[in-house]
Specification:
This protein is α+β, with helices and mostly antiparallel strands and 651 residues long. Among the domains are: 2-99 and 260-317, no CATH class; 116-240, Alpha-Beta Plaits (2-Layer Sandwich), CATH 3.30.70. The protein has 25 helices and 13 strands. The protein has helices at 13-23, 34-41, 49-65, 78-86, 88-132, 135-140, 152-159, 188-197, 203-206, 209-216, 218-240, 242-251, 253-269, 294-308, 343-346, 359-373, 377-393, 398-420, 444-472, 485-503, 508-512, 515-537, 544-567, 569-592, 597-626; strands spanning 2-8, 26-29, 143-148, 166-171, 176-182, 201-202, 277-278, 283-289, 313-317, 327-328, 422-423, 426-427, 636-637. Strands 1, 2, 7, 8 and 9 form a 5-stranded antiparallel beta sheet that branches. A 4-stranded antiparallel beta sheet has the order 4-5-3-6. The chain has a two-stranded parallel ribbon with strand order 10-13. Helix 3 (49-65) runs parallel beside helix 5 and helix 22 (515-537) crosses helix 23.
Length: 651
């Protein structure tokens, strides 16, 4: 990783952050450094852009959510940017006042439009009514009203109860029509009651007296129709009001464009995840970037310089001792199908920049240990096929990660299945009981000795990696202790002493005189010396505290080394449990008398319960007995900066 520092005039800070957020190749950090601290003392500028943005947003959102305008951002000119930088509060207040003017103009247009729509509806109603009402019928009818066509049938049933009444309907629209009722005058009161029940509007509720008189006069009726048609056209123009909106947009185009640009600008400047240093003269932005993207960031800054005509300072440097929390990106696994399996490492912690990234090692060790416990060709093939299926079907989520891990687990189970000569719990089909690996049931002791050797090699390998990490971090003395050479020599000497003890017929005193036992003792002494040397080198002197820590390191080496080696014997125990399922399958088939039933049941148990238990035990050995020797996982994940997007409130 590289640390970058960008120094810019304050008015261009938002543009730089915008470019960094769009590129998504940097992680921003709090600005630090000797020169920066001097600059901070000269006068750091504190502007509450968050409160300023909230104030601006209250006015701007109503304008943005309006369907009247499609706002397009207009970038502020250099002098306007400088003016904003000199007094952000005044600039925002001025723009807010202009926005309020635009909103008032819009309200006036909308009020005229609403009034025009109301008058247009009334005019159309009168126009269509005059067209529908024939003069002769209007003069002869007893009463006329406007009714819903949906009730016409029921209305007719009531009117037909009197033989001297008749009716006629003239459709006014698709759902309404005028009902003309003809009959004697004495029926008028009864018809009015029926109209009231069925909510039929009397003609005088729809049209005024003058309109009715016009409808009864043939000559004046045509003149009135033409008059209302002209009025409707004029009112239609008012309701559309596009010209008024265009006028507002033309008059306030610069205001609307600046508002859009300022919205984007304040979103960036108010983002609290951007820890930039702001002064009256310059702004400083710092962060981390992967070496592969250094050239890309240089290109971005060069393009921005050409665009603005300004000069920006850009510097790259390696992380120093004072830089804490240096992030590390997720490694790119090869082949890419293994990428989700990095989760196996990240569950133990995120690798720091000062330690080895054990992504491939953790996958290999985990699968290797699983295969030792679960060696079976047929069952391993099932997990291999299932792993390929899940990894291809799911590209993210837990199913993707499980599927990816099942691939190396299945391969390992197949390999050790060949070595154990086991296919779906059936043994001896390949080598006729002359398999490479000791049989867990018949050669348990040989298998335990082999596992003990594997345990010593694996733990010593982890300790070698631990010593490497200590040297890489610059802690040479730390490479001598319980997570380095001290424990390494102790575990190696302890294993060789145990083998010598077995070879000489288990003579305990003779084994203690072995040179290998002296190697183990020397390893414990190194673990004791590590904290003592640390105290001496730091200038604190060799006191009781250092001696106490040394004794603790010695005891931890003694106990932890023994516990780690014996903990690996669980591999032999689970291998024995897996092989015992074959014996149980034969016994179950014999007792039930159904051919193959025992193998079927035991394979189901092996594919479910035993698979889970073997996976958990392999995971435990990986995390504690192996990775615990060298991997701290206290790193920080590299998270590229992304622009914060303002969420719109639901309509």
């Amino acid at each position: 990783m590289k640390k970058f520092t960008i120094i810019t005039p304050p008015e261009y800070e938002h543009q730089i952050i915008n470019e960094l957020g769009a590129a998504r190749v940097v992680q921003l950090k709090a600005v630090s450094g000797v020169d920066v601290e001097r600059l901070r003392k000269t006068g750091e500028r504190i502007v509450d852009f968050k409160s300023l943005y909230e104030k601006f947003l209250d006015e701007y959102k109503a304008l943005e959510d309006s369907t009247v305008f499609d706002l397009e951002g207009t970038e502020l000119e250099a002098d306007k940017l400088k003016e904003f930088n000199e007094d952000p509060v005044a600039s925002v207040d001025n723009l807010v006042a202009k926005i309020q003017e635009v909103k008032e103009k819009i309200k006036e247009v909308e009020a005229r439009r609403e009034e025009g729509e109301r008058k247009l509806i009334e005019t159309k109603l009168r126009l269509e009514s005059l067209k529908a009402l024939e003069p002769e019928e209007l003069k002869k009818c007893l009463i006329v009203g406007l009714a819903d066509l949906s009730i016409q049938k029921r209305l007719d049933e009531y009117l037909k109860r009197f033989e001297d009444l008749s009716s006629k309907v003239v459709e006014f629209s698709s759902d309404k029509g005028y009902v003309f009722v003809f009959g004697p005058e004495e029926r008028k009161e009864w018809v009015e009651t029926i109209f009231l029940i069925f909510e039929v509007k009397d003609i005088f509720e729809v049209l005024d007296t003058q309109d009715i008189l016009l409808a009864m006069d043939t000559g004046k009726r045509e003149e009135a129709i033409k008059k209302y048609e002209q009025e409707a056209k004029g009112l239609q123009a008012i309701t559309e009001a596009e010209a008024d909106y265009e006028q507002i947009k033309t008059e306030y185009s610069s205001v609307l464009g600046n508002a859009k640009f300022l919205d984007q600008m304040l979103v960036i400047l108010s983002d609290e995840s951007v820890p930039s240093l702001r002064t009256n003269v310059i702004s400083v932005v710092q962060g981390w970037i992967h070496e592969d993207n250094v050239q890309a960031l240089g290109t971005i800054m060069s393009d921005l310089q050409r665009k603005t005509g300004e000069l920006f300072y850009l510097e790259f440097e390696d992380p120093g001792h004072d830089d804490h929390g240096v992030p590390t990106p997720e490694p790119k696994m090869w082949p890419s199908i293994l990428q989700p399996a990095f989760k196996l490492t990240s569950l133990r912690g995120w690798p720091s920049i000062h330690e080895l990234n054990p992504s491939y090692i953790s996958i290999f060790i985990f699968s290797f240990q699983f295969g030792l416990m679960y060696g079976d060709i047929g069952q391993g093939a099932i997990f291999l096929i299932l792993g390929f299926y899940l990894s291809r079907k799911y590209k993210r989520g837990m199913s993707s990660k499980l599927g990816t891990l099942m691939i190396p687990m299945g391969i390992s189970a197949i390999i050790f299945g060949v070595l154990y000569d086991s296919i779906f719990l059936m043994e001896g089909l390949l080598f006729h009981h002359h398999q490479v690996m000791p049989n867990p049931v018949h050669d348990t002791t040989k298998l335990m000795l082999l596992i003990f050797k594997i345990a010593a090699i694996e733990v010593m390998f982890g300790l070698a990696l631990g010593a490497y990490n200590q040297v890489k971090e610059g802690n040479l003395i730390g490479a001598l202790g319980e997570h380095g050479a001290g424990m390494f020599l102790y575990v190696g000497g302890l294993y060789m002493t145990a083998m010598h003890f077995i070879d000489i017929g288990m003579d305990f005193m003779a084994a203690l005189g072995s040179p290998w036992f002296l190697v183990a003792v020397f390893g414990m002494l190194l673990s004791f010396m590590e904290p003592v040397l640390h105290a001496w080198r730091s200038g604190h002197g060799v006191g009781m505290e250092a001696v106490g820590e040394g004794v603790g390191g010695l005891l931890m080496t003694f106990v932890e080394g023994l516990a780690n080696l014996f903990s690996f014997l669980r591999i032999a125990a689970f291998a024995l449990a897996h092989a015992s399922l074959a014996i149980a399958a034969e016994a179950l088939t014999h007792s039930l008398g159904i051919a193959g039933i025992g193998l079927l049941v035991m394979n189901v148990i092996a594919l479910s319960f035993e698979f889970i238990s073997s996976s958990v035990q392999s995971l435990r050995l990986l995390y504690y007995e192996f990775m615990g020797k060298f991997y701290h996982g206290d790193g920080v994940r590299f998270q590229p900066y992304r622009l914060r997007v303002r969420r719109r409130s639901p309509a």
